[in-house]
Amino acid sequence: MKRLIAFMALFLFVVNANAVTAAKSSPDKKAAATITETPVKDEKLAQQLAKEVEAEEPVVIAAVAPAQIQATPAPAAPEAQPTQETAAASSTDGDLNLDDDAIEAESLAANQAMQESVTSIEAMPKKKDKNWYISAVLGTLQYPDVSNVNGKYNIMGSLGYIWEKSFVFELGGGAANYEMESYNANVLNRKDKFEIDQYYMTGAAKYRMAFGRIVPSAGVFMQMTQRNFTQRDPNNVGNNGMTIDRGNSQTTDAGVVGAVDFEMNRDFAIGLDLRYMINVSNKADTIANVNAASQGSVSVTPIEQLQSYSAGVSARMNF
Fold first, then answer.
1. Which of 23, 33, 206, 251 could form a disulfide with 282 if both were Cys (CB 3.0 to 4.6 A apart)?
2. What pLDDT, in 10s, does the model give residues 120-152?
């Protein structure tokens, strides 16, 4: 029995050695230990051999496994490639202090430049408002209630002051000339022709409103007028310039004034001037009826008591 057992052990050893040699000769293929079953007639011997095989299997597996299994190195983890965001972040982190200093320096420079510009603007001399002005008006003077008075010209000059850009105070003076025909009450159907020279002084207060370059204004005024009457000599048939002095008169008139100016620049403006006036008081130092304006053949109202208006173009210069 012992010899049989020894023979079986030797047989198994040879089989295992061949399996190991085969595994070494072909490492790429998996080697499996093959045990050939040998029919055993003795049942007890078969059981003992089975136990011995079971006991020896781990040894065979242990002997075969190191030769069969080759250690395969695990794949190395791919190195993380730096992305643009990572590179930018790392660059930003590295240059953070430098960028902060640059931003702060730029901010300080901008603030300093702004302060210098504000200081320079404040230091610049502001344009002085030109509140004073002189103006001139050229037009004509008319008496709308009668048809026998014909105006020739009316010239007026003024000195004014603009207060708070809206209120205007003005002093001026002017001269006007016109003709008047009047029926002579002493000589039937005779028309006497008079030339009237008028000189006046005026003071006005106006309120002006600016709409860009268009500046309308309106106000009131008072006027003191001196009239000198000269009659053409009715006895001189040729009427070659011979005249007769017929006296003078004084009046005080009140009225309203309206104007529209177009300001070409802050120094000069042109516009229209319209004035309407009524008589407040009058005094005449003349021969009777020679200063009477008449309608038709009837002497009605002295010219000093008539309402009148003047219209003309104006030019204004500020200083």
1. 251
2. 666 666 677 899 999 999 999 999 988 889 999
Q: Give the predicted TM-score (pTM) of the model.
A: 0.60
pLDDT in tens, 190-247: 778 889 999 999 999 999 999 999 999 999 999 999 999 998 776 665 556 678 888 8
DSSP state of 70: P
- The boundaries of the domain holding residue 11 are 2-68
- 187/303 same-domain check: yes
